[in-house]
Each structure stands twice: as structure tokens, then as C-alpha cells.
Amino acid sequence: MTAPATPAVEIRPLDPLKDAELIHPWVTHPKAAFWMMQDAKLQDVERAYMEIAAHPHHDAFIGLVDGEPAFLMERYDPAEVELVGLYEPQPGDVGMHFLVAPTDTPVHGFTRLVITAVMRELFADPATARVVVEPDVRNKAVHALNEAVGFVPERAIQKPEKEALLSFCTRAQFETAAGARI
Which part of the chain is the Acyltransferase MbtK/IucB-like conserved domain (predicted)? Predict the structure, then answer.
């Protein structure tokens, strides 16, 4: 008997003009409520990701699993975007958001595979010392996923759009949670 193959995960830069149509149904899906784009039109999504593409401290990516687009990932400098003035940034801090594409046929463990791939991608950069996240305090599912890959919640913070749970994950915490060195 052979073990099931581990899915191949690739991460590529998001092209706002080419990928807006792909991600529009993802970010407006009811399960993406915490993405806060429920009522966004295609042009709104395109515009939002054009702004990210033009920003020197914010990037967006499409994640492919076995060659199929499956998730959205954002990387940002929390000293410049999202968390300015809300915590004391440290050298090597990198902010992250991720969103798994909605599906009618969920696969057990898929979201854990995605967040692990996202964290591996972020820590592949030797300059990344710690990943910072700020999900909505009500998003219990993502808190559990974050903790599963090594995040430790620090405190609730008030952002303009939400009350968020500020959490951190060092390289060592991720390696311990992932069970392997990066």
C-alpha cells in the first residue's frame, strides 16, 4: 500500500487584471465574511488588488494546489500597513492574510495544508523572523488554525474595521508546530 501523495503547492504573484475574475467569487462568498468584501463588484476587487500591487509594502499571491487555483495570500509589512501604531513592530515581522477558495466538496485538512504552505512561503525568506496576524476576534475557526501552526495570541486590538486578535508566530514556533525544519 502506498501513502497518498502530498498535494503540490505553488504560490505565484496575483495579477489584478487577470486574476480579479478568479478571486471575485472567493472574496464575496458568504464563507469569506471576515474578508469584508461581501458586496464588492468585480471592478471593486480589481481596484483593491491594483492598490495592493502598487503598494511598496503589500503583496498578493494566488496559491495553486496540484495546479489549480485554491487560495489567496497577502503579505505585508505591519510597520507600514494594517498595524501601524497598534503594536511595537520588531525587525523581521511580516504580516499575513490568507483565504481558501470556497468549494462544494471540502477536503478534510485542506485549510491546514494551505496555512502551512503560506507559512513555509513566508519563512522561506531568511529575513522573516516572525509572522503577525490580526484576524477578527469572532473568527474562531481561523484562531484554531493559527494556533495549529504555532501562533500565540497576544491581545485584542481595535482596528478601524474590526476588533482583531493580534497573534504572533516565530520561525521556531512554526517549526515545532509543523514538526519539521523549514
Answer: 12-59
Reported for 151-160, long-range contacts at CB under 8 A and 24+ positions apart, including other chains, are 154/87, 157/83, 157/86, 157/87, 159/82, 159/86, 159/134
CB atoms within 10 A of CB 101: 22
Residue 180: band (very low, low, confident or very high) from pLDDT cuts 50, 70, 90? low
CA 10 vs CA 4, 46, 121: distances in Å: 19, 22, 9
d(CA 45, CA 23): 8
